[in-house]
Amino acid sequence: MFENKVVWITGASSGIGEAVAYEMAKAGAVLILSARREDVLAHVSAQCARFGVSESNIKLLPFDITDEAVFADITTAAHSFKGRIDMLFNNAGISQRSLCVDTDMATYRRLFEVDVFGQIALTKQVLPHMLEQGAGHIAVTASVAGKIGVAERTGYCAAKHAVMGFFDALRSEVNRQGIHVTTITPGFIRTAISENALKGDGEKFGKMDKNISGGMDVTACAEAIMKGFKRGKKEIAVGTGKEMQGLWVKRFFPNLLFKITGNLAPTVTES
């Protein structure tokens, strides 16, 4: 399915993006890898080459997902690599670990710039190329937090809910124009997401929390995502913990879920 397809992955330097890059390499895809740090992307590229992808079929395009001014040129470079972009996997993102009362508005804005506006802006650059091709696949890493609101994630949950809404709506717009849209809703996956998460003041959280350390292996997560892609699933829920049951509870017993999440939340005190 992905052999010789041009797949552009953002957030490809670590976590789910890196793991999916390796699975795409195994599937024979042509890879465009993006993240902020070129040196880390070079390491991922070298690992992809071990799975048989030639150097001529891997392109590194480092950029910051919040630097919208470079998106047009970056997209031109991506499209010029092989003359098409068959898949855009929007995977860049950042999380949060702070109560609302302790969170600066600048931190909320940062979460939305990275998790929402960056994904939308890059998609808008790539979409015209796919429409001209008459085919394409746009995927985005959302989260179970895009379906369920939990304490100390107000900004992250808001951003991921927005991501789900935007890409669900986009799917309805391009459904009859050969463009497939996939939303991915991971639960707790063992990545550095909590270490890189923002505290209320915008500084890094800097440690792995218990839920993440006990989460699903990232390679198994990437394999499940690939299976979902191959099956043409519009939404891919991936995880092994109790948070995945929360998706079902939210749908059928929302008041029960609100009670559970409320009981798990820390007590808010005046600063």
UniProtKB/TrEMBL annotation:
InterPro entries: KR_dom (IPR057326), NAD(P)-bd_dom_sf (IPR036291), Sc_DH/Rdtase_CS (IPR020904), SDR_fam (IPR002347). The keyword Phosphoprotein does not apply. Keywords: Oxidoreductase. It comes from the Bacteria. PROSITE patterns: ADH_SHORT. The keyword Oxidoreductase applies. Residues 5-192 form the Ketoreductase domain. Gene3D superfamilies: NAD(P)-binding Rossmann-like Domain (3.40.50.720). Pfam families: adh_short. Belongs to the short-chain dehydrogenases/reductases (SDR) family. This is SDR family oxidoreductase. It comes from Kordiimonas pumila.
